[in-house]
Structure formats: structure tokens, C-alpha cells
Write a structure and sequence with these properties.
Distance between the termini of chain A: 36 Å
Largest sheet of chain B: 6 strands, mixed
Order of helices and strands of chain A: EEEEEEEEEEE
Helix content of chain B: under 10%
Largest sheet of chain A: 7 strands, mixed
Structural class of chain A: mainly beta
Order of helices and strands of chain B: EEEEEEEEEEE
Number of strands of chain B: 11
Number of helices of chain B: 0
Number of strands of chain A: 11
Structural class of chain B: mainly beta
Radius of gyration of chain A: 14 Å
Strand content of chain A: over 45%
Shape of chain B: globular
Oligomer: heterodimer
Strand content of chain B: over 45%
Distance between the termini of chain B: 41 Å
Number of helices of chain A: 0
């Protein structure tokens, strides 16, 4: 069982370049989310999705786009990378509960991005 | 806007000590509160999940409590071990499914 898989694990970009961070889960989870973690800080929510075709903005959405065309995949796109987007990015997924909440959150191993 | 705060930011204790990590949140309208562990350079591992209708959850030497009325959660670690050294993060999920994290408590358990 692969769980949550993120690719690439490491990436170096130049300012202005675009790229996509991939996230895939094989647990049939409806809830998926992207976070960034900067040194000495907790995680900040970028975008999230409660199901295929549904996405919403988190705390720090500017400069990032997402789409959710399938249950399994939730890619994060940087359209024009900036040095301020240098960070470690984490994807996570969870299944819903009968009460409308979510269950345990499963995280990928992270993608370390450097923008020069 | 939900804000989550964790105190202390860092903690160093001798092996065998019982300890409490604190988490507070400003908006009590949450779906759940979760505690995670993060080792250096690694992803997050879920430790305990408390739904809004629950008061506490236990797993082995870990016990987490939730008091929505006061906006507080605590993680109790019994008989701490050097292997417990890590950063512990709490996160609150609000009713729009936004999960907001605290900045974490960095724990060092000294042999």
C-alpha cells in the first residue's frame, strides 16, 4: 500500500519558471490538501479539496493553482516561481466520517523546492 | 479566522518524565483536532485524532484531551523515552474543512 506519493522529492527552479508538484493517493480518500512548511514554522494550508471537481483556497493560496479531476490525484502548480516559494511542500489525504468530519490525515514525504 | 498556538515552543526533559504539551485554538467551531509527530527531514505522522464530540483519545503512552469551550487541547506523554524526541504539532479543522496548524513543540528527551 503506497499511501500518499509526492513527486519530485527535490526540485530547483529559476525565478519565473513554472512547474507542477504531483500528489497521488491510493486509499480512495475524498479529502486532499497541500501545505508548505518554512523553517521553524508549522504547516500552512495552500489549497484543499473535499472531492473530485471541488477545490478551495487555504491560508496562503496566492501563486499556486490546483485541480482535482480524479479522486486519486491532486497536483499543485506554480505558474511563475518566486524565491518566496522556496519551501518544503506536503500533500495529505483523508477519508470523510459519517458526521461530516474527516478521519486521520495521511501525509506524503514532502517535496523540497528551491527557487533561485 | 482560526489561529492555533502551541506552548512551549521547545521542551527538554530527562528520560522517564511525564509531560504535557499544550495547544490552544481561537474558534471553537471545529470538526476535529489532530496531533502529529514530525521527525527531522520527514513528513508528519498522525498520533491522535479527536472528533468534536469526543473529549479524549488514547494510544499507548499518549493521551490527548479536547476542551472546545476553552479552546484547548493537551497531549500527555507518559514515561518519556529518547525515541519520543521529535516535533509535535497540533492542528484544528474548522467547519469549512480548513486544517490550521500550530507552529509545533520541539521535544528533546535526554537519556
Amino acid at each position: 500500500n503506497a499511501g500518499v506519493t509526492q513527486t519530485p522529492k527535490f526540485q530547483v527552479l529559476k525565478t519565473g519558471q513554472s512547474m507542477t508538484l504531483q500528489c497521488a493517493q491510493d486509499m480512495n480518500h475524498e479529502y486532499m490538501s497541500w501545505y508548505r512548511q518554512d523553517p521553524g514554522m508549522g504547516l500552512r494550508l495552500i489549497h484543499y479539496s473535499v472531492g473530485a471537481g471541488i477545490t478551495d483556497q487555504g491560508e496562503v493560496p496566492n501563486g499556486y493553482n490546483v485541480s482535482r479531476s480524479t479522486t486519486e490525484d491532486f497536483p499543485l502548480r506554480l505558474l511563475s516561481a518566486a524565491p518566496s516559494q522556496t519551501s518544503v511542500y506536503f500533500c495529505a489525504s483523508s477519508s470523510p466520517t459519517s458526521g461530516g468530519s474527516t478521519g486521520e490525515l495521511f501525509f506524503g514525504e514532502g517535496s523540497r523546492l528551491t527557487v533561485l | 479566522k482560526q489561529e492555533v498556538t502551541q506552548i512551549p515552543a521547545a521542551l527538554s526533559v530527562p528520560e522517564g518524565e511525564n509531560l504535557v504539551l499544550n495547544c490552544s485554538f481561537t474558534d471553537s467551531a471545529i470538526y476535529n483536532l489532530q496531533w502529529f509527530r514530525q521527525d527531522p527531514g520527514k513528513g508528519l505522522t498522525s498520533l491522535l485524532l479527536i472528533q468534536s464530540s469526543q473529549r479524549e483519545q488514547t494510544s499507548g503512552r499518549l493521551n490527548a484531551s479536547l476542551d472546545k469551550s476553552s479552546g484547548r487541547s493537551t497531549l500527555y506523554i507518559a514515561a518519556s523515552q529518547p525515541g519520543d524526541s521529535a516535533t509535535y504539532l497540533c492542528a484544528a479543522m474548522d467547519s469549512s474543512y480548513k486544517l490550521i496548524f500550530g507552529s509545533g513543540t520541539r521535544l528533546l528527551v535526554r537519556p
